[in-house]
Design goal:
Elements lengths: L2 E7 L11 H8 L3 E7 L12 E2 L9 E2 L1 H19 L6 E11 L2 H8 L3 E5 L9 H8 L3 E6 L8 H13 L10 H4 L18 E3 L5 E3 L9 H19 L14
Parallel strand pairs: 1-2, 1-6, 5-6, 5-7
Antiparallel strand pairs: 3-4, 8-9
The chain binds S-adenosylmethionine.
Length: 250
């Protein structure tokens, strides 16, 4: 069955790139069903208001609870019409205060049949929306793209969707290319080379590829790549091996 992804946002146009490239093709091939919804559809005033000032004072605006509650109910109803009455979505709130997103999260989500992404804006969403969903038995995840702050959840949703959808069977033509990637086994990918094997760079330096890659000996090549992966992980991301330090320059 196709993976269904609903996105609720005040900027539906922000999600236009989901029509391009591999994800666009996966949608046309029926492997994923992406539905983008404008949160303002669930407002009822002339200005289609989704935000208000923070109670208790402070800078910025906070997203009001009412449109979100209506949106979740409507999107769940629409999803159940196509997926079945018992279907339960995972509701993902991109949030800098959430749990960091990793490749294993992507793997987990790619095996589900329904995700709803809820894009926050301004200072964030009224806390009672989360309480309302939790009390109603919804499965909710607060997910961070990293320890920095974006203007809204849309950019995060583009990244999350791409990481998840490419793991849906059939989306990436050569499934083997997913197995050897960075983070698939807790290590970073080995260095990559292509033709020409001997390249003179613009500074006149001749740069050769490692000879072993031309040897045709697949066993030795695999061992060399593994060694390179380990060395690179130790150098750049020792935290992945449970070690301290790290050098991002190479
Ligand atoms: N006031 C919030 C805080 O200090 O945690 C930041 C709000 S941010 C300006 C607006 C929205 O952008 C958030 O509700 C969230 O949807 C999204 N966002 C920002 N940074 C993010 C990150 N690192 N990962 C995922 N989503 C993020």
């Amino acid at each position: 069955m196709a993976l269904r992804i609903d996105v609720i946002t005040i900027f539906p146009e922000y999600l236009a790139p989901l029509e391009l490239s591999l994800i666009g093709k996966a949608r046309r091939d029926g492997l994923v069903d992406v539905q983008v919804h404008d949160l303002r559809r669930w407002t009822h005033d002339r200005h289609r208001t989704v935000d208000d000032t923070p109670l208790g004072g402070g800078a910025g605006m906070v997203m009001k609870p009412e449109p979100w509650a209506e949106a979740f109910a409507a999107v769940r109803e629409a999803g159940r019409e196509s997926l079945g009455e018992d279907s339960e979505p995972l509701v993902v709130f991109p949030n800098p205060a959430g749990v960091p997103f990793t490749q294993s999260t992507a793997q987990d989500w790619s095996q589900r049949d329904w995700l709803i992404f809820a894009c926050g804006r301004y200072e964030g969403i009224d806390e009672r929306v989360y309480e309302h969903l939790a009390d109603g038995g919804w499965e909710v995840a607060l997910t961070s793209l990293g320890d920095y702050v974006l203007n809204g959840g849309e950019v995060a949703v583009l990244a999350l969707t791409e990481a998840v959808v490419r793991l849906v069977p059939g989306v990436v033509g050569n499934a083997e290319s997913l197995v050897e990637e960075s983070h698939s086994e807790g290590l970073l990918e080995y260095p990559l080379y292509t033709r020409p094997a001997r390249w003179t760079d613009p500074a006149g330096v001749v740069r050769e590829t490692p000879e072993i890659l031309l040897s045709g000996d697949h066993g030795r090549i695999a061992a060399w790549r593994r060694e390179q992966s380990l060395a690179r992980t130790r150098r750049r991301r020792p935290d992945l091996l449970g070690e301290a330090g790290g050098d991002a320059s190479r």
